[in-house]
Model the fold of this input.
Amino acid sequence: MATSQPQEVKVTEPNEQGYRSYSLGEFNFRRDEHFVHIDWPTGRHVMAVEPFLKALMRDIAWNFFYGTVNFDSVIGTVNHYGDVDLFAGRFNEDYRKAEIDHLENFPHDEIKATFEAMLGDWVNESFDPFAAPQETGSAYGDKAGNNFAAVTRTRVTAKRMIGMPDDELLRSDESGYTVNRMFADVDQSEPEVKVEPGYENEVSAFSLFKYLSRSDVTWNPSVVSVCKDSLYCPTTEEFILPIIHGNDRVEWFIQLSDEIIWEVADRETGRPRANVVMKAGDCAAMPADIRHQGFSPKRSMLLVWENNSAALPGMIARGETPNVPVEF
Amino acid sequence: MTEYKTVFGSLTNYEKGGVEVINDSPQNYVFSNLFEVASRSKPWEKVAVAKNMEYVIEAIRAEGVSPWRIAPHDEFALVMDGQVTIDLLDPDSVTANSNSTGSVVVDGEPAGRKMGQIVAKRGHLSLLPANRCYRMSARDASVVLLQTILGPDTVQRWSDICQKH
Done:
């Protein structure tokens, strides 16, 4: 991973709505009251402000995540873990045929600095791009302050397990994490833990469901337990996953509560492949050659399970391991 | 105002979703339900419900008292239904094979120092620390989801547990 260095961001003075415009290579980004306008040498694209900012938030917070983060069917990024592709139409069959797609590669720190500046400028005081629709104000309108506290949240990444000494903290009323309105019926009791002297660093347990019921964000996996490269990354989901995730490795979902419907399409073309309906206790793999987007009617608890091995994307790209985790 | 009800599954009450194919094989999604798997398992059988290279998640039907086990790496037990008691022991002489993965059974009652005990209910996640012995017990049939690595006792019966059509 690239080390963090001060980066120069190409930015204009504010427009008449109060927003600055940004350039990254031959890509230009500007926003007005309702829309984000993106252009590149062979084309242009428009997105509504709210879904754009929600997607941008995840891309930054997840450090460009595993594989492809499609903001929609045209714009997105591909993480190469040190450098990042920014693309328009690269994974859109018709843009490719029309030869109006465009892709540029940037050092990780350069694209991150530009995206962070854009997010900081374009998110107004009343809007939280991580929040569920009914828990935040509007993303639209003229420039009206900032919400740096919301857009600079740090992703939770436990070193061993949440709640252990020198690791990520549990959530409570006192620490500012109240129970979400849709999880008011979730049991808040903690496990009974008896520890003999000298074993305080090894005997540990916590209520994951209580922890998740107090999450103040949606569609933002946190690492809660680590078994070498096996990462438990549970998250709470409500409404629509703001990005369409294109896998560069197999990813697993274990539905812990309620229901999510996943639309699955081909990673390269976007052609539909399946819908996966997941209810509490269901387990499903997302193959390494797909893209997926989730729809959660009620706030739900989802265990996202990742294999963090740096070798995996290369092995899959070279055909050394199948796109599916198990053949039977 | 809507009154929200959070839906969890259990051994005796779960509803299963599924893969609705458009242009694919359902087998690519390795779709199963952990409560269904546990409801058809023997006590303490470690049935893989997810696998990513060498890593697995196992669904375990917890019922009665398990043998003592030990693994050379951390494992994590999430109770998905019921109540499970976990006893932890710092063994005097039993060691985990550092060249292997997954847990193995420790014969009999290993000698060592008691480390502590955890009583975990639905939604509680417990560390099973590397190179320590652990034993689980459950008065009533319960379900544990175990984050671990493929081991000699991991049961893989994908064809039996996964959606094929």
